[in-house]
Write a structure and sequence with these properties.
The chain is an all-alpha fold. It has 18 helices and two strands. It binds tryptophan. Tryptophan binds next to helix 1, helix 2, helix 10 and helix 14.
Length: 448
């Protein structure tokens, strides 16, 4: 099978582009707001450092040694008699489930980019009205922008690793960072910045309940794109001489930095005008535009920049959600890239339409199960069950199944002996145990 190779910088940007997504700019800030700030952030940072980073190295390693699609890499690396591990490779299909709702949200962002120029809402009430009109009352508009998102993402993936994925990441990632750091510079000058800083970095322990902990652990996986073979699939195209440990470190660092910057920017704006942080998923769609209205025309400019950054982040992640299955279909079923992309896109487009309809007033009932909208079911299943399960399988595979000498010979020269011992302990014990606890907790079997 022929797999194209990224350039070194191309790989870093593509992996970072996958990691930095709606999870960083949309989800992380609203979760931090909901769960009370500092203590939640601290748990998130600790998990990233002690579990997320180790699993990132493990997932990259599977791709870099396997050099195949998700299923093929597991199959190739599993020792004789343990080839059943190839089924772990089907974690790649989670990406398509995530895409069903991810592309709906990217669609909302496109809609905002279009309508923001006509002015910002003056009151939260008005902003709520706009968001609700879109999500609950305008299925046609939502479907239109969801379709646009599917087409853009499909087009990029169709162009392949080099001229699609690498190229777009080399363009959009620097642009995204420029916008966010520019906004941060401006946020520095606001009085709200100090408050934002202490909200995010002074832990208030009384706000930290077991739900917050589990959500922080879960989010650290989602934000690093771990547990479904996205990083694995990209790593199959890793340039030969690349240093896995260093690359994983850079990607983890960039992802965390961007989440923190996005949080600081949003909370500075919110606190500047006395808004509350615990608004839930509507935080960037409802509170932020209203707050920015206080800046007059400049506010429209900020809002456009912000939603542009959000769109860029979303697109670069979305392509990494689609690519694993596309690669799988190409390898296994001899699909052409175009055929694979069209097939997959149609599939998740349809489910995505059902998901977005589940939020509408007119069709909500049809697309809900036990009062739960399909949208939430898809999100919950991937976030709480499939991703941690994928992470668990990766950790166990690399920690126990994969030939130890092979792992050591690749990683020891990168990490040195001492760090390697720590990493191995994390991948064999800390990560699997934490992930099992998390899944059980989220499924509701046990309560921490
Ligand atoms: N990490 C992305 C975000 O933060 C989402 C994402 C992309 C993802 N690829 C993934 C999540 C693979 C889990 C697995 O928005």
């Amino acid at each position: 099978m022929k797999i194209q190779r990224f350039s070194k910088i191309g790989f870093v940007m593509a992996a970072a582009g996958s990691a930095v997504g709606l999870g960083n700019i949309w989800k992380f800030p609203y979760m931090t707001g909901e769960y009370g700030g500092g203590a939640f952030v601290l748990v998130y940072l600790v998990t990233i450092a002690f579990i997320g980073f180790s699993v990132m190295v493990a997932e990259m390693l599977i791709g870099a040694l396997g050099r195949s699609d998700t299923v093929g890499s597991f199959e190739k690396l599993a020792p004789p008699g343990k080839k059943g591990w190839k089924y772990a490779g089907f974690m790649g299909f989670n990406g398509i489930i995530i895409m069903t709702f991810y592309s709906v949200v990217i669609g909302w962002i496109f809609y905002y980019l279009f309508t923001l120029t006509t002015g910002l809402p003056e009151t939260t009430q008005e902003a709520k009205g706009i968001f609700e009109a879109l999500v609950s009352n305008s299925p046609a508009v939502s479907i239109f922008f969801h379709t646009v998102a599917v087409i853009i993402v499909g087009y990029i993936v169709q162009r392949g690793i080099k001229s699609g994925i690498e190229k777009i990441n080399l363009l959009l990632m620097p642009a995204l960072m420029l916008i966010l750091f520019g906004l941060l510079l401006y946020a520095f000058t606001l009085d709200g910045f100090k408050e934002a800083f202490s909200f995010m970095f002074e832990p208030k322990w009384d706000k930290l309940n077991s739900e917050a902990i589990v959500r922080a652990v879960g989010h650290s996986f989602f934000t690093l794109s771990l547990g479904m073979g996205a990083i694995l699939t990209y790593a199959a195209s890793l340039p030969k001489e690349a240093n896995i440990t260093k690359t994983a470190l850079i990607v983890t660092f960039m992802d965390t930095l961007i989440a923190l910057v996005a949080g600081l920017v949003i909370f500075s704006f919110l606190f500047q005008f006395g808004a509350q942080p615990q608004q839930g998923p509507g935080l960037v769609f409802i509170s932020l535009p209203t707050i920015l209205d206080n800046f007059g025309t400049l506010g429209i400019f900020f809002a456009l920049l912000f939603f542009l950054a959000l769109a860029f982040a979303g697109i670069t992640s979305a392509i990494s959600l689609v690519e694993p299955v596309v690669q799988y279909l190409i390898d296994r079923f001899d699909f052409t890239r175009t055929k694979a992309v069209v097939f997959i896109s149609i599939l998740y487009w349809i489910v995505g339409v059902a998901a977005l309809l589940s939020y509408t007033k007119s069709y909500g009932d049809i697309f809900s199960v036990a009062q739960k909208p399909l949208f939430d079911i898809l999100e919950y299943t991937t976030d709480s069950i499939l991703l941690p399960l994928g992470g668990f399988l990766i950790a166990v595979f690399v920690g126990y199944i994969l030939d130890k000498d092979r792992v050591a010979s690749q990683l020891k020269k990168e990490m040195g002996n001492r760090l390697f011992t720590v990493w191995r302990f994390s991948i064999r014990y800390v990560a699997p145990i934490a992930l099992v606890f998390m899944m059980l907790n989220l499924i509701g079997i046990i309560k921490l």
